[in-house]
Write a structure and sequence with these properties.
- The complex is a heterodimer of chains A (785) and B (166).
- Helices cover 29% and strands 24% of the residues of chain A.
- Chain A is of the alpha+beta class and 785 residues long.
- Chain A folds into three domains: 20-27 and 482-625, Aldehyde oxidase/xanthine dehydrogenase, molybdopterin binding domain (Aldehyde Oxidoreductase, domain 4, 2-Layer Sandwich); 34-133 and 200-248 and 255-288, Aldehyde oxidase/xanthine dehydrogenase, a/b hammerhead (Aldehyde Oxidoreductase, domain 3, Alpha-Beta Complex); 379-466 and 630-784, Aldehyde oxidase/xanthine dehydrogenase, molybdopterin binding domain (Aldehyde Oxidoreductase, domain 4).
- Chain A is globular.
- The N and C termini of chain A lie far apart (81 Å).
- In chain A, 59% of the residues are buried.
- With 166 residues, chain B is α+β, with helices and mostly antiparallel strands.
- Chain B contains five helices and five strands.
- Chain B has helices spanning 22-29, 85-92, 102-115, 121-127, 139-165; strands at residues 2-7, 10-15, 48-51, 54-57, 70-72.
- Chain B is globular and about 55 Å long.
- The chains are: A alpha+beta (785), B alpha+beta (166).
- At the A-B interface, helix 1 and helix 17 of A face helix 2, helix 3, helix 4 and helix 5 of B.
């Protein structure tokens, strides 16, 4: 054994991931890998129509098929008061249709069978009598006075309008616009896309009819919140519900909501008394579960002639689908969109938003972002670039002129956020340096002279993550605070139990590193447990980049709490007073006598074997963290592209991403998160599109039509970092998983638009397919011919 | 239909329905759950296995088509207790996050470096272009496969060098 002190691999170390050991062996435990004795299989019949009255269902032939155990319909669910369930936006959503279908792919009936193939055979034997109604596929049509009402189930709903929401100071903003030399406007549609984790959603519901114990294995990013929702919906006693979220094959927001399939499978297991497994097909995942965006945005930026920004207006129309099911804090109807002033010192901002029902799938989730921050970031970063063109300024210079300055933090924004820390100029300068901005502009000028379309796009995003402080943040009334429990065993090894759920972020490694940093136990000696509501503290789960800001903070704080008891024990062992004990890297020593020392392992052993009179045995604690503020990660992304004028094909030549997420717990994992987010941002900018034809048929219902970037198209990324710690977070970390998806779409689009700017093209809505870019080039040529 | 498949070096027989997909044969009958299902349409590659050494998407192959063939899944990558160089490199280079695409990616990588011991960045990207990863952005997967190629070559060279020195 080496005797010299081993470096504690805490914060800042690129520790290799503990979870990889099972994944590289094919020994993960994903939802479809769970197999219980006597398990049945469920398949769901979905509506081919977007809007149709349900006249009746004849399931007799399906029920007669050998191997079929039951066919569940809305009528049966209604008998148990389970035909409807609450959504995360406090609306209601049909579990199985009883009156009319409201989107293509909606759940109409479910077959429970002994074999998954038989379950699917039986779906074809179910006869459904539909009477088609006019499908509404745009929110504009939905809000016309003669549009048919989609939510006829809601007594107070006379049209398709859901909410109107405003924030900011309208008077001050109007005044700013009145005083402006220049007003730049942009109308843009952030289209519907889908997170499409590689593993679809599913569950195995196992309700014991004798005891009423319901063990539900489920692809959930938020198992605790789901348990409470299940208790409320089904009237089941909460102590008898155990939600187990096993290894998740990605989530990206898609695995936050409660879907009808989970409820039907649970009801079926309860009624039949056997476990029921339901695993979505890819098409079911794309056409029926949590989508993202579908947001029509109008933005206006008021500036002085010298480029000083004076005010910003945004008016928004959200297409919510058939049920208002956005996953977001109750207080804010369009999430945290009001971060729209972004990185700029904008004194006056006003946001007005409306939401409408349409005959499209519900479940507006924050796809790898913190509640519509992506939309906000896209709007401001696109507006700023267009403003630079109109003022004949360089887009980088216009940004630099208007950035919130380092010394202005904490910065109170016009819409009520208090930005914790930032150095926007620092990130911009580094990005410019890394990509060689000045040289690229010179090269662009030369290329243009040769008729080549080179473009350089920037985006200087500011995110707002880590919801949130209990005063303002809740989902369905549940405050967004998360717990952590830490127990040190007699041999000095530990178990940390957390409320948040990894979907690939590596919590089992990084959270162990936080413990290591705070108490000096090596990360491989800390087992991190999550995803089982019976065995972890309460909390609202992993989304909106809240794991590190909230649960990571809880982990640091609970470890400090344990350390305080350890200090008392060390004082006892070393026979000095507590005040005389110093702690560093796992060693408790006597001030001024550093050779008098006890390691955390020795202290832990004493907690069970040699503790003083009057002290409780054991070395453990719990902590619920209520964040004092949100955190505000930021960065600048710089992209250079070349567009082929003859085909509209565009290629990323270089992509530099400078991120500042505060303190980095595990740099390797942070960089991996950024690579992934930049790729999803590229997918959204270039190809990922869920759209609908006029009949409400979903286009983009499989991976042949819903395009996901492969290794061949995906750009290569060059990363840069600055570190501006969060002043209020115990370890100074801010969260990073979503920054690249939030910031990068605008950077890619700005680059393409920058290439096309000489043709007079100032906007193309995403995704920027080559066909769309080509059409824009042709239209521009025709206009000038 | 009665079939005989050599799966990961072991002869297995099964009596299966003609329509049973190979991926379900592997997962449900042979109970090897490292092979995943991601899309049902052979676009994503999560279900990739090797059939007679070549990558194939087992969601669009019938089980009966594997009759008399050698099938390698992620569970067959190990050499006893030792990791395949591809497995070790995926961990070392952080080539995985959620782990769902990983078995398919590693099998494609292993097949590639059998044929091409020094794959370029583009060689790897082209080889894995039938496999979707939603988490990593591919850069570290490419790196992992190249690292594995180097490690494999080094391991093959080491005994030869020892023999030469003996």
């Amino acid at each position: 054994m080496a005797t010299e002190t081993e470096v504690i691999r805490g914060i800042g170390h690129s520790v290799r991931r503990v979870e990889d050991d099972r994944f590289i062996r094919g020994a993960g435990n994903y939802i479809d890998d769970i197999h219980l004795p006597k398990m049945l299989y469920m398949a769901i019949l979905r509506s081919p129509y977007a809007h149709a009255t349900l006249n009746g269902i004849d399931a007799s032939a399906a029920e007669a098929l050998p191997g079929v155990v039951a066919v569940v319909t809305g009528e049966l669910m209604a008998q148990h008061n389970l035909a409807w369930m609450p959504t995360l936006s406090n609306d209601t959503q049909a579990v199985l249709v009883t009156d009319k279908v409201r989107f293509q792919g909606q759940e109409v009936a479910a077959v429970i069978a002994e074999d998954p193939y038989i379950a699917k055979d039986a779906l074809e034997l179910i006869q459904v009598d539909y009477e088609p109604l006019e499908p509404i596929v745009t929110p504009q049509r939905a809000l016309e006075p003669d549009a048919p009402v989609i939510r006829t189930d809601k007594e107070d709903q006379t049209g398709n309008h859901i909410y109107h929401w405003e924030t900011g100071d309208k008077g001050a903003t109007d005044k700013a616009f009145a005083e402006a030399d220049k007003v730049v406007t942009l109308d843009t549609f952030y289209p519907r896309c889908h997170p499409a984790p590689l593993e679809t959603c599913g569950c195995v519901a196992d309700v014991n009819p004798a005891t009423g114990q319901a063990n539900i294995y489920m692809t959930s990013q938020a198992p605790h919140a789901v348990r409470t929702v299940f208790a409320l919906v089904a009237g089941l006693p909460e102590e008898k519900i155990r939600i187990i979220s096993p290894d998740l094959g990605g989530g990206f927001g898609n695995k936050v909501p409660v879907y009808p399939g989970y409820v039907i499978a649970t009801a079926a297991s309860l009624l039949i008394g056997r476990p029921v497994k339901w695993i979505e097909e890819r098409t079911e995942n794309l056409i029926s579960t949590g989508f993202a965006r579908d947001f029509h945005m109008h933005g206006e930026l008021a500036l002085k002639a010298d480029g000083t920004m004076l005010g910003l207006r945004a008016s928004l129309l959200a297409d919510e689908g058939a049920f208002h099911a956005d996953a977001q804090p109750s207080k804010f109807k369009v999430g945290l969109f009001h971060i729209v002033s972004g990185s700029y010192d904008l004194p006056a901002v006003h946001v007005a938003a409306d939401g409408a029902y349409t005959n499209k799938a519900p479940g507006g989730v924050a796809y790898r972002c913190s509640f519509r921050v992506t939309e906000a970031s896209y709007l401001i970063e696109r507006l700023v670039q267009n403003a630079a063109y109109e003022l004949d300024m360089d887009p980088a210079d216009l940004r630099l002129k208007n950035f919130i300055q380092k010394e202005q933090f904490p910065y109170a924004s016009a819409t009520g956020f208090v930005y914790d820390s930032g150095d926007y100029e620092g990130a911009m300068k580094l990005a410019q340096e890394q990509i060689g901005y000045a040289e690229l502009r010179a090269e662009q000028k030369a290329a243009r002279a040769e008729g080549k379309l080179y473009g350089i796009g920037l985006a200087s995003f500011t995110e707002v993550v880590g919801a949130g402080p209990h005063k303002d943040y809740d989902i369905l009334g549940l405050k967004m605070n998360d717990g952590a429990e830490l127990r040190i065993h007699p041999t000095g090894k530990a178990i940390l139990k957390i409320s948040v759920q990894t979907q690939g972020q590596g919590h089992e490694t990084t959270f162990a590193q936080i413990v290591a940093e705070e108490i000096g136990i090596q990360p491989e000696d800390v087992k991190v447990m999550h995803g089982d509501t019976d065995n972890t503290p309460y909390g609202l789960g992993t989304y909106a980049s809240r794991s590190t800001p909230v649960s990571g903070a809880a982990t640091a704080m609970v470890t400090r709490r344990v350390r305080e008891k350890a200090r008392k024990l060390a004082a006892h062992l070393l026979e000095v007073s507590e005040e005389d004990i110093e702690f560093e890297a796992g060693n408790f020593s006597v001030k001024g006598a550093p050779d008098k020392v006890k390691t955390i392992q020795e202290v832990a052993f004493a907690a069970y074997t040699d503790f003083p009179d009057g002290m409780e045995a054991g070395l453990e604690a719990n902590y619920y963290y209520d964040p004092p503020n949100l955190t505000f990660p930021f960065g600048t992304y710089a992209v250079s592209v070349e567009v082929d004028p003859d085909t509209g094909v565009w290629k990323v030549r270089r992509m530099v991403a400078v991120d500042d997420c505060g303190v980095r717990i595990n740099p390797m994992i942070v960089e991996g998160q950024i690579h992934g987010g930049l790729t999803e941002g590229y997918g959204i900018a270039a190809m990922q599109l869920i759209t609908f034809d006029e009949s409400g048929n979903c286009i983009g219902s499989n991976f042949m039509d819903y395009l996901i970037p492969t290794a061949w198209e995906t750009p290569k990324f060059e990363l840069g970092e600055t570190v501006t710690p969060s002043p209020h977070h115990p370890i100074g970390a801010k969260g990073v998983g979503e920054s690249p998806t939030v910031g990068s779409p605008a950077a890619y689009v700005n680059a393409v638009i920058d290439a096309l700017q000489p043709l007079g093209i100032t906007n193309i809505d995403m995704p920027l397919t080559s066909a769309k870019v080509w059409a824009a080039i042709e239209a521009a040529k025709a206009a000038t011919a | 239909m009665q079939i005989k498949v050599n799966i990961n070096g072991t002869e297995r027989t099964a009596d299966i329905e003609d329509r049973l997909l190979l991926v379900h044969l592997i997962r449900e009958v042979f109970e090897l759950t490292g092979t995943h299902i991601g899309c049902d349409t052979s676009n994503c590659g999560a279900c990739t296995v090797l059939i007679d050494g070549s990558p194939a998407k087992s969601c669009t192959v019938f089980g009966v088509q594997a009759d008399g063939r050698e099938v390698t899944t992620v569970e067959g990558l190990m050499d006893g207790a030792a990791l395949n160089p591809v497995q070790a490199a995926f961990k070392e280079e952080h080539g995985l996050q959620c782990g769902y695409c990983t078995p398919g990616m590693m099998l494609v990588g292993a097949a590639l470096i059998e044929e091409n011991p020094e794959p370029s960045d583009d060689d790897v990207r082209w080889a894995i272009s039938g496999n979707i990863c939603r988490c990593t952005g591919y850069m570290n997967i490419v790196k992992a496969i190249q690292t594995a190629a180097r490690e494999k070559a080094a391991a093959a060279a080491a005994p030869a060098a020892e023999a030469a020195n003996a």
